[in-house]
Amino acid sequence: GLEGPESVTIALKENGSYKVKLHFMEPKDIGAGKRLFDVKLQGKTVLSKLDVAESSGGFRKTMAKEFTIAVKDEELRLEFVPHTEEPSILSGVEWRLLP
Prior knowledge:
Blueprint: E1 2-3, E2 7-11, E3 16-25, E4 37-41, E5 44-50, H1 52-56, E6 62-71, E7 75-82, E8 89-90, E9 92-97
Protein backbone atom coordinates (compact mmCIF):
# COMPACT_ATOMS: atom_id res chain seq x y z
CA GLY A 1 0.00 0.00 0.00
CA LEU A 2 0.89 3.64 -0.38
CA GLU A 3 0.52 6.53 2.04
CA GLY A 4 0.76 10.00 0.54
CA PRO A 5 0.57 9.33 -3.20
CA GLU A 6 -0.21 12.37 -5.33
CA SER A 7 -0.47 10.36 -8.54
CA VAL A 8 0.04 6.86 -9.88
CA THR A 9 0.43 6.04 -13.58
CA ILE A 10 0.18 2.47 -14.87
CA ALA A 11 1.29 1.65 -18.42
CA LEU A 12 -1.22 -0.51 -20.30
CA LYS A 13 -0.75 -2.56 -23.46
CA GLU A 14 -3.85 -1.30 -25.22
CA ASN A 15 -6.59 1.30 -25.20
CA GLY A 16 -10.23 0.55 -24.51
CA SER A 17 -12.73 0.29 -21.69
CA TYR A 18 -11.33 -0.99 -18.40
CA LYS A 19 -12.86 -2.17 -15.17
CA VAL A 20 -10.73 -0.65 -12.39
CA LYS A 21 -11.00 -1.75 -8.76
CA LEU A 22 -9.34 0.38 -6.08
CA HIS A 23 -8.58 -1.14 -2.67
CA PHE A 24 -8.27 0.85 0.55
CA MET A 25 -7.51 0.17 4.22
CA GLU A 26 -7.02 2.74 6.96
CA PRO A 27 -3.59 1.81 8.43
CA LYS A 28 -3.80 4.07 11.50
CA ASP A 29 -6.27 4.09 14.39
CA ILE A 30 -7.22 7.72 13.70
CA GLY A 31 -11.00 7.45 13.48
CA ALA A 32 -13.51 8.79 11.00
CA GLY A 33 -13.09 12.28 9.59
CA LYS A 34 -9.31 12.49 10.10
CA ARG A 35 -8.29 11.43 6.55
CA LEU A 36 -10.39 12.75 3.67
CA PHE A 37 -9.28 12.78 0.04
CA ASP A 38 -10.56 12.81 -3.53
CA VAL A 39 -9.63 10.16 -6.07
CA LYS A 40 -9.44 10.91 -9.79
CA LEU A 41 -9.27 8.41 -12.64
CA GLN A 42 -8.20 9.72 -16.05
CA GLY A 43 -8.61 13.26 -14.68
CA LYS A 44 -12.21 12.80 -13.50
CA THR A 45 -13.14 12.77 -9.80
CA VAL A 46 -14.64 9.36 -9.01
CA LEU A 47 -14.53 9.60 -5.20
CA SER A 48 -15.03 12.87 -3.36
CA LYS A 49 -13.82 13.33 0.23
CA LEU A 50 -13.36 9.60 0.72
CA ASP A 51 -13.14 8.66 4.41
CA VAL A 52 -11.81 5.09 4.44
CA ALA A 53 -12.17 4.69 8.24
CA GLU A 54 -15.85 5.64 8.08
CA SER A 55 -16.70 3.83 4.81
CA SER A 56 -14.96 0.57 5.74
CA GLY A 57 -16.14 0.42 9.34
CA GLY A 58 -12.89 1.35 11.07
CA PHE A 59 -9.19 0.81 11.52
CA ARG A 60 -7.61 -1.95 9.38
CA LYS A 61 -10.91 -2.81 7.69
CA THR A 62 -10.71 -3.21 3.92
CA MET A 63 -12.94 -1.77 1.25
CA ALA A 64 -12.94 -1.57 -2.54
CA LYS A 65 -14.55 0.68 -5.12
CA GLU A 66 -14.99 -0.33 -8.76
CA PHE A 67 -15.26 1.86 -11.86
CA THR A 68 -15.46 1.51 -15.64
CA ILE A 69 -13.22 3.97 -17.47
CA ALA A 70 -12.03 4.65 -21.01
CA VAL A 71 -8.29 4.63 -21.72
CA LYS A 72 -7.11 6.42 -24.87
CA ASP A 73 -3.36 6.82 -24.32
CA GLU A 74 -2.36 3.38 -22.96
CA GLU A 75 -2.04 4.81 -19.43
CA LEU A 76 -4.20 4.38 -16.36
CA ARG A 77 -3.84 7.60 -14.36
CA LEU A 78 -4.85 7.97 -10.71
CA GLU A 79 -4.62 11.22 -8.77
CA PHE A 80 -5.17 11.87 -5.07
CA VAL A 81 -6.17 15.20 -3.51
CA PRO A 82 -6.06 15.32 0.31
CA HIS A 83 -8.51 17.52 2.26
CA THR A 84 -6.96 16.96 5.72
CA GLU A 85 -3.47 16.84 7.25
CA GLU A 86 -3.42 13.04 6.93
CA PRO A 87 -2.21 12.12 3.42
CA SER A 88 -4.13 10.03 0.89
CA ILE A 89 -3.82 6.24 0.95
CA LEU A 90 -4.11 3.42 -1.58
CA SER A 91 -3.84 -0.28 -0.78
CA GLY A 92 -4.09 -1.79 -4.25
CA VAL A 93 -5.29 -1.48 -7.84
CA GLU A 94 -6.77 -4.13 -10.14
CA TRP A 95 -7.66 -3.57 -13.79
CA ARG A 96 -8.93 -5.58 -16.70
CA LEU A 97 -9.76 -4.76 -20.30
CA LEU A 98 -13.43 -5.24 -21.05
CA PRO A 99 -14.48 -7.13 -24.18
